[in-house]
Amino acid sequence: MFSWLSLHQEMIYIVILSVFLGIEVIGRVPSVLHTPLMSGANAIHGVVIIGAIIVMGKAESNNLLALTLGFLAVILGTLNVVGGFVVTDRMLEMFKKKK
Known about the structure:
- By secondary structure, the protein is mainly alpha-helical.
- The chain has helices at 2-7, 9-27, 34-58, 64-93.
- It is 81% helix and 0% strand.
- The longest helix has 30 residues, at 64-93.
- The chain crosses the membrane at residues 12-29, 41-59, 65-88.
């Protein structure tokens, strides 16, 4: 366990720093801009879905951890993309003229 941590120490630092950076960036965005930014996040989650599919395709059939995490990433990424499109559609409906 400790050898794995010391071997991947740089990657762990990058993930931790990116979490803190993401919290700082999102925390400073005004609430008016959150919905338009969600539309942009749909593209990012599309990349996550494609990456998860690639990981699942390259994983060996006996590597249950990679297959499970890939499947979970596909499901959660898809839910986030669909939810983002629903919210964006509702936002755009507000700007249409009512009859």
